Amino acid sequence: MSDDTDTPMMQELHAQAIPIAADGGAETASAGDTADIAGAAAGASRDRNTPPARPEYVDFDVEDFPGGLRGCLEAILMVADQPQQSAVLARVLAVDETQVDKALRALCADYDGHRRTTGQDEAHDTGDACTASDGNGSAGVPRGFELRHTARGWQFANRLAYEPVVAAFVTDGQTARLSQAALEALAIIAYRQPVTRAQVAAIRGVNSDGVIRSLVVRGLIREEGVDTESRAALLVTSGLFLEHMGLDSLDQLPLLAPFMPSIGEMENTEMKNGGKIENAMERNNSERNNDTI
After folding, report:
1. What is the mean pLDDT of the chain?
2. What are the residue boundaries of the structural domains of the chain, listed by start?
3. Residue 77 pLDDT exceeds 60
């Protein structure tokens, strides 16, 4: 053994593994002792990487299926009608949540067309690489759908770029967009939440019960708590609103400042409105005088 390996740690291991003979000579450690030490170290490493306990209803291993963990995740998300959290998917498949996160992000890169030139076996073993080809000649080409991650979890969705194509198929000539009034009410609720119906109506200047009711039916807003003073129901946006907007949280909403009019434009608007009000009042006074005469 060379001198560079004679460190204090190695000396301690030698002291534990090499017994000293009565006549002062050293006896080498037996093969059995070395195997026991190696086995204990390997066992400790396995304990750190052991996946969650397998539920009783899970009688399979994800690696027994074609595509392994990625294939299982695709099959589940294809039939799920709601976004799924990584922890739920990990529990159902009896694998570690870290593995699920890596596999989901690898699928995202795969669908986006970001592929590595590594072989399929290497990608399957690491669970974090994208294969060079998917078998149908579409290597490196973005798909018409994506694996979207929002605050509610992971879910398949069509890409925004294909919105005209999907709209033409779904609506087939019919319009299913929100009205201008509904968009106004939804914007007020999104930026001012929690807010009452009366506050929305005050900002818009008209009664908004009808459009608010339609937003509730669509699942874009919901009631959450009551106002302490008026005892009216408070309105907030729902998780479905974030999902449709492609946001993880309300903090990602666009800033309103770029869309606000300048001070000069606001002053001009006030002057014009003030002139209109004065003209209307003069007309009313003139009509009253004529009626009196």
Report:
1. 74
2. 63-164, 180-259
3. yes
Helices of type H across 49-161: 68-79, 86-93, 97-111, 120-126
- The predicted pLDDT at position 164 comes to 86
List Cβ neighbours of 275 (8 Å cut-off, separation of 6 or more).
none
Handedness of CA 19, 20, 23, 27 (dihedral sign): positive
CATH no., domain 63-164:
1.10.10.10
Contacts of 216 (CB under 8 A, 6+ apart): 222, 223
H or E element at residue 56: none
Q: Residue 245: how many CB atoms within 10 A of its CB? A: 16
pTM: 0.41
- Amino acid of residue 129: A
- The answer to whether 70 and 107 are in contact (CB under 8 A) is yes
Closest to 151 (Cα-Cα) out of 250, 229, 70: 250
Q: Supply the DSSP string of 157-213, one letter for each residue.
A: EE-GGGHHHHHHHHHTT---PPPHHHHHHHHHHHHH-SB-HHHHHHHHTS--HHHHH
Ramachandran region of residue 231, left (φ > 0), alpha (ψ -120 to 50) or beta?
Answer: left
3-state SS, residue 280: helix
Distance CA(79)–CA(89), nearest Å, equals 13
CATH for 180-259, options being 1.10.3730.10, 3.40.50.300, 3.30.43.10, 1.10.10.10? 1.10.10.10
